[in-house]
Write a structure and sequence with these properties.
The protein is mainly alpha-helical. It has 2 domains: 90 residues, Rna Polymerase Sigma Factor, Chain: A; 101 residues, Arc Repressor Mutant, subunit A (Orthogonal Bundle). It is elongated and about 55 Å long.
């Protein structure tokens, strides 16, 4: 007999093991727990809300269908982010993706964008501060913006980010260092507290 949904622990590892043993409540709890974060991350990769929603549902449906064969997962949320990213970027109509015309980077096959409002947390001189943050973001590559998002909002480790982005941990470290150096330069120019906060989360 399955546990009542209210009695099921919130721990991702427990829920993952439970769904592997065919507990539909565990699957539903994982879906409910992580849907919002997955949804907003997906919108950074695709500007089609319905497509993001459908992709998230497909991922969980596939997990359920293959539950007897899927392996153990140490970082469940990172696994879900990786699956979402891979599915959104795999053989999908190009029109669905956000393009950053101001960023010239032939290695990038998609754009990942963050608005100033995404990272602005203060109240004073909002218009001026948002302009400064906008100028900062214009200097970042799509990959750097994505790393900031994963660090700032997801609190992921470099190893987890490397798995999500399918790049080497050293590449994550290099991108983070370039981003931090740019943040420090901007901080010296503008002395905005938000730069201290971003540097803290990226270190």
């Amino acid at each position: 007999m399955h546990k009542n949904q209210n009695q099921l622990p919130e721990d991702d590892q427990y829920l993952w093991n439970a769904l592997k043993h065919s507990d539909p409540i565990a699957l539903n709890r994982l879906f409910t727990k992580h849907y919002t974060d997955l949804y907003f991350y997906g919108l950074k990769l695709s500007n089609n809300q319905d497509y993001v929603t459908d992709t998230i549902q497909d991922i969980f449906a596939n997990i359920w269908e293959t539950r007897k064969r899927i392996s153990e997962v140490k970082h469940v949320k990172a696994y879900l982010f990786t699956a979402l990213r891979n599915n959104l970027l795999k053989s999908k109509p190009k029109a669905f993706f956000i393009r950053l015309d101001t960023v010239i980077n032939p290695i990038q096959e998609f754009g990942f964008d963050i608005s100033p409002e995404d990272i602005y947390l203060g109240n004073e001189s909002k218009r001026e501060n948002i302009k400064i943050i906008k100028d900062l973001l214009a200097d970042l590559s799509p990959k750097q913006k994505e790393i900031i998002y994963l660090k700032f909002y997801g609190n992921y480790s470099n190893t987890e980010i490397s798995k999500i982005l399918s790049i080497k941990p050293q590449s994550v470290a290099n991108l983070l260092m370039r981003t931090i150096n740019l943040l420090r330069k901007k901080k010296n120019e503008n002395n905005l507290p938000i730069f201290n906060m971003l540097i803290f989360y990226l270190l």
